[in-house]
Amino acid sequence: MCGIAGYVGNKEALSILINGLSKLEYRGYDSAGISIICDGNIKTVKKKGRISVLEEFVKNDKINGHIGIGHTRWATHGEPSDKNSHPHTNTDGSISIVHNGIIENYIKLRDDLISKGYKFLSDTDTEVVVHLLDYYYKKDKNIKDAVFSTLNQIEGTYALGIICKDYPDTLIAARKGSPLIIGVGENENFIASDVPAILNYTKKIYLLDDGEVALINKDLILIYDKNKNEVKKDIFEVTWDMESAEKGGFEHFMLKEIFDQPKAIKDTLLGRLKNDYINLDEIKIDKQILENINRVYIVACGTAYHAGLMGKKFIESLCGIPVITDVASEFRYNNPIIDNKTLLIVLSQSGETADTLAAVRLAKEKGARILGVVNTVGSSIAREADDLLYTLAGLEIAVASTKAYTSQVVSMYLLANLFALELGKISKNDFENVKLTLEKLPGYIEDILKESDKIEKLSKEYINIKNVFYIGRGLDYFICKEGSLKLKEVSYLYSEAYPAGELKHGPIALLQEDSLVIGIATCENTMEKLVSNLQECKARGSKILSITTENNNIIKKVADNIIYIPYAGEFITPILANIPLQLFAYYMAINLGRDVDKPRNLAKSVTVE
Ligand code: F6R
């Protein structure tokens, strides 16, 4: 994910910026760059690749200066490349900016600016900000007013670091929806998107709030609210060490990423849910194309495959189109029936999984249209797909996928609704409800995450359990498959997921007193049947834990423990049921002393078949 570092003070800015950016490396990035005011002019160097590539380039350049901004980019708009890297400058190079976040209305702003004669050099959404700032600066003749005028035009999220040649002592910062802090030093001040970037220099920080703009000199920091009124803030003392700062105070990346999910979903939905349509501008599948398709495959591996199973159900239910799901390693060797009327939907966090990529290539060769649902911008699958839906979950570091999965499922739901709208299968009213529910989803997840202490406590009751069976029906069964995979990956406990009605056809023979059966119970039409299946397990002495919606009284008859989640409709409630399962897997692994972020035998990106 993108990182920002900025400096103003008496020291050489270059080494401080490089040092700050390197402390943000753990977040992942694909390019890096800096701008420094040097002999009265802004000097910018930006390179695709690691910070060491940038360092190599600036090594022999005399970039001496006491004010500057730096950035590590994790591509969202436009592939990783020198030209798309930050900082971005206005045409005469007198203003330079770095940006984290997404400018939602950048296409409209870019068109307006082009009509005013501005020339764009990159594919990024960010570049509109610097040209807009140039436009207002020429009009307002004052950088502070120009920044406010610019921000008034921008929709979306941003953390911005800005320098202007005419203000050689002033670093400017602005924030809405993306984190940005100001580090307070002695005769020097800093900005950063995250604490590690400044921890070597100061532990005193101001936390910028949404809508605020700061003008920062080496010995003066002025912070303004969105109405340009000066605000006074308390200094916040950082007490974490470097390692915990990188994990945002969480003990493990897996836990951090579980807690990242409300933001990951917000980002995935940002700018996509319009009043009566879904804005997925990299998907060009209209009614005519959909009606011409004779077969839809969804293909992926592991957790992404589980998200694909949810996608199958969404598309079949909402669009009435039959869908075949397959794991990528099987699909390729099953002689799949593919022609130029086939749509292949592939899901992948990394966009580099060897089997999934091979499935893409095979299907493409046979004429299929490829729709990629991918998290990593510029990855192989993203480049080779005909249509693209970025999941925008942000960088996922823990090997066990959590926030990428949830974002994949939400993306599949968006896609199914997009197709259903195109085909006229759902009304505007239905879509209004879909929109309202999706908008509430991050808040529902936050509510569940607030219960994490209870789930931690509960997990301790099951410390001696030897095997865990997850059972459910309908969408709940697919959630069971993901819950079971997560548990075995990080805790190494033996675990299986079964459709609840299937248990008595064989696996029930395994149930004993040291077995735990987790019943996912959100599907209302099969609730009674699920309860009977849980009774069958209880009768064999197994412990019963259920995840269900508030007010489900019938489950109380059978479950020893219940975790309640909010009810958010037929399609979204199962997504919520997955959150306690992620926490349960995490805490079980902790109880058993496992290395949760790096489970044995597993790799984050599986680039071998
Ligand atoms: C499990 C997990 C894996 C991946 C699978 C596909 O937690 O992360 O099962 O889902 O290896 O990876 P991507 O999505 O990168 O194609």
Written account of the structure:
The longest helix has 23 residues, at 569-591. The radius of gyration is 26 Å and the shape is globular. With 609 residues, it is α/β, with parallel strands linked by helices. The strands form four sheets. It has an eight-stranded antiparallel β-sheet with strand order 3-2-4-1-10-9-11-15, covered by helices on one side. The chain has a seven-stranded antiparallel β-sheet with strand order 5-6-7-8-12-13-14, with helices on one face. The protein has a five-stranded parallel β-sheet with strand order 17-16-18-19-20, with helices on both faces. 37% of the residues lie in helices and 22% in strands. The chain has three domains: 3-244, Glutamine Phosphoribosylpyrophosphate, subunit 1, domain 1 (4-Layer Sandwich), CATH 3.60.20.10; 246-449, Glucose-6-phosphate isomerase like protein, domain 1 (Rossmann fold, 3-Layer(aba) Sandwich), CATH 3.40.50; 452-591, Glucose-6-phosphate isomerase like protein, domain 1 (Rossmann fold), CATH 3.40.50. Bound molecules: fructose -6-phosphate. Fructose -6-phosphate (F6R) binds at residues 301-304, 348-350, 353, 356, 400-401, 489, 605-606.
